[in-house]
């Protein structure tokens, strides 16, 4: 995915400003004041659409800005919905269903085919197995960084299966669709492959500030680079989704019951 037209300085500055605004918003939302974070998310989303409406940048820059706008919109929605009525076991899929809804709305609006996004049948088993081979050590490393406590009193196959389904069809699918198939893909078209890979990985790390762990941020950035590289090299979401789902299942569904 190479940049197909020269990008003006102001277009670079626009995307940089969006990254800075989202980073500040997520930091304040996590560490300072949730209310201020929500207000900043609102102004960031409005600001993005206002600027691209007035200045009319190139189509790939517009696409990049609009898919980045999904991040503050996601913050707004998940912060304002009345989640209290949901049982705890349904909270995670409900939150990530929000990401999926936003992403699929964007895909529908832009008339992007599933194959363009990376939903392909080619070599699906090979890429899935590759994801397992990478996901197991990734999940193990991440466990020793943040050491999450067990969710349930004891390990059961039923809980493991449920965790894997949640991680595969909600967390991994939602985050890989947003950060790889939309953000990385659009930024790569606009600014080149390397910029798309690094910047999408950075945004992926920023959205994990909620773990409140600096080592975790570095690990997530590195993980984002690996996931993004797999997406770029294979042209498919199968391997990134598989790595993500298996790694997260190891992180919360297996290792906490072995080491705690």
Automatic annotation (TrEMBL):
InterPro entries per UniProt: Rce1/LyrA-like_dom
Keywords carried by this UniProt record: Hydrolase, Membrane, Protease, Transmembrane, Transmembrane helix
GO molecular function, one term: endopeptidase activity
Transmembrane feature ranges: 12-30, 36-54, 66-84, 90-107, 127-152, 164-183, 217-232, 239-259
Keyword match Cell membrane: no
Domain called CAAX prenyl protease 2/Lysostaphin resistance protein A-like: residue spans: 163-250
Record keyword Membrane present: yes
GO BP of this protein: CAAX-box protein maturation; proteolysis
Protein name (record): CAAX protease self-immunity
Lineage: Archaea, Methanobacteriati, Methanobacteriota, Stenosarchaea group, Methanomicrobia
